[in-house]
Amino acid sequence: MTADHRPGRDFIVEVPAPAVEFNEVYRNFVGSAGYFVANNIYSRLVVFDTGSPAAYPDLAEHWEMAPDARTLRFQLNRHARWHDGEPVTAEDVAYTHLTALANGYHAASFLHDVRDIEVLGPHELRYVLRRPNAGFLAQLGNLVFAHVLPKHLYEGTDWATNPYNQQPVGSGPFRFVEHVPGERVVLEAWDGYWGPRPQIDRVILDIEPDLDEAVRKVADGRAHYLVQDVLTFPRLHLAEGSTTASVWRKRGPGIAVLSFNHTQDRWRDRRARAAVAHAVDRRRLVPLADPGWSEPYAHYLPRSVDWAFAEDATAPAHDPAEAVRLLDAAGITSSGRQPALRLAYMKTFTGHAGIAAAVAEDLRAVGLEVDVVGLDSPTWARQIGRDADFDLTISGGNMIPDPEITASRFETGGGRNHARLSDPEADACYAAARATTDRSRRGEHYRELQRVWARNVDWVPLFWYAAYYLRSDSFFGWPDQVGFRVPFWHWGRIRPVP
Which positions fall inside the Solute-binding protein family domain (predicted)? Predict the structure, then answer.
């Protein structure tokens, strides 16, 4: 990293993957530098932290859902401004989300229930849903998918080629300053921010593809933070003994899952899917676990979603003899030598490499040939998300604080449903859970959803992972330290320790 460094007022973040662009409403590159930049220069209506079931204000300072869960009304902060000085209005919000919906852009993954967005005034709007959805607010506040873009810079342009994808203008606490491809991205605190001004002057995202070196940079004080998914249990030893940084651990917001390519005839047969599930020996994953924090896991939601968790819903148990029998019955192995199955995982999630290797050994043990391939985020988006060029995948993702956010991955037609899963029984459970604002009744429907997944072997849970945050002791303001639950990727409230 060659950017001039100002001790105490700069916040240096180690990121393993370079930025492609910064408009994650348009398309998503998980774990890239652009993903983290977008989360700090743009705003959304509300913000969710996975550690809390409550929504917190961002652009919206007040909101309410109708009793029938079909409409939501939002009142925007009248002081919000874009980084070029223009006011943020309800027109910006409506334009961004309706355009994403109309074109099937990435944000549509979490906006699919929107029928219309009505602008009621300069700072007031109403979302009209196609059907009841009591969990819709969680979708709006989840990760990067529902940022708001400046209408005056995007309207009438092709989002694919709009220059502001590379020179972004947001309304968040930091503004974009510099991007040196493959090296760094620099942001600086924006004096015109309508919320609390950041107490750090700059954020410097340092692109460090050597994951071990990324850990060492924070551990020895050359940097201040390491983004999630770089530090995994096997790499923790690199942070031990640091005198400048500490590791904060918590149970992860989701689980690593094995998914089938449901467009392939072989996986339409439940026997074939059950065979794969029976082949999995989770004991192989024990060396990857951090006792008390992560574990091999056979349930379909994290236990931390206590109001919706189904203790009785588990994946088929390890039974290699039954796996062999079912593979033969389903015609997978009965016709002789089979083409090698392609098992893909995203390299950004470094813990998935060990899980994929273990699962591949389990499948080879029951007579299947398996090739394991790790893909970077852009390749994953193209080969897996767009082209369905795979047989099996290992993937992860948030499942809390509201199971509604899993619908984009597991419901028919979901925007992130790369497996092309379509299970009418599961879809009915999602619909029933959305239709009531009574959380206890929603929990009943989500418990039945997990039983459907287990019964039909729609996908296979593997590992409940931990989240590790290696962070400098010279800064304060993390989600576990402040009452306002800012997510791990948002650095607007980080400040130097006096």
Answer: 56-406
Q: Where are the alpha helices (DSSP H) in 374-461?
A: 377-379, 407-410, 424-434, 439-456
List the Cα angle 368/372/378 in 5-degree steps.
140
What is the spatial distance between Cα 326 and Cα 320, in angstroms, rounded to a whole number? Answer: 10
CA–CA dist 287, 399 (Å, integer):
24
Q: How far apart are CA 245 and CA 265, in angstroms?
A: 51
* Angle formed at CA 33 by CA 375 and CA 194, multiple of 5 degrees: 145
Contact criterion met (CB below 8 Å) for 461 and 455: no
Please give the single-letter amino acid code of residue 390.
F
Establish how many alpha carbons lie within 13 A of residue 238's alpha carbon, considering only the half-sphere containing its beta carbon: 19
Q: Please give the structure tokens belonging to residue 474.
A: 């010279």
Q: How many CB atoms lie within 10 A of CB 245?
A: 23
Q: Residue ranges of the chain with pLDDT lower than 50? A: 2
Alpha-carbon distance 19 to 16, whole Å?
10
Q: What is the DSSP letter of 358?
A: H
Q: Which two tokens stand for residue 44?
A: 């959304």
Tokens standing for 378? 């852009």
| Residue matched to tokens 């692109």 | 207
Is-contact 479 49, C-beta < 8 A? Answer: yes
Read off the tokens for 86.
């223009």
Taking the C-alpha atoms of residue 196 and residue 460, their distance in angstroms, rounded to an integer, is 44
Torsion, Cα 381 385 387 391, to 10 degrees, reads: 110
Compute the distance between CA of residue 185 and CA of residue 168 in angstroms, rounded to an integer: 12
Q: Residue 229: CB partners within 8 Å, gap ≥ 6?
A: 31, 348, 349, 350, 351
Q: What is the DSSP string of 148-206?
A: ---HHHHTTS-TTT-GGGTS---SSSEEEEEEETTTEEEEEE-TT-SSPPPSSSEEEEE
Within 8 A by CB and 6+ apart from 228, the residues are 467, 468, 469, 488, 489
Q: Which two tokens stand for residue 77?
A: 């902060």
Instruction: Give tens-digit pLDDT for 252-304.
Output: 889 999 999 999 999 999 999 999 999 999 999 999 999 999 999 999 999 99
CA atoms of 36 and 31, how far apart (whole Å): 7
The half-sphere exposure of 322 on its side-chain side, counting CA atoms within 13 A, is: 14
Nearest in space to 58 (alpha carbons), one of 484, 404, 489, 488: 484
What is the pTM for the complete model shown?
Answer: 0.89
d(CA 205, CA 184): 5
**Cα–Cα distance between 324 and 321 in angstroms, integer?**
5
What pLDDT score was predicted for residue 56? 84
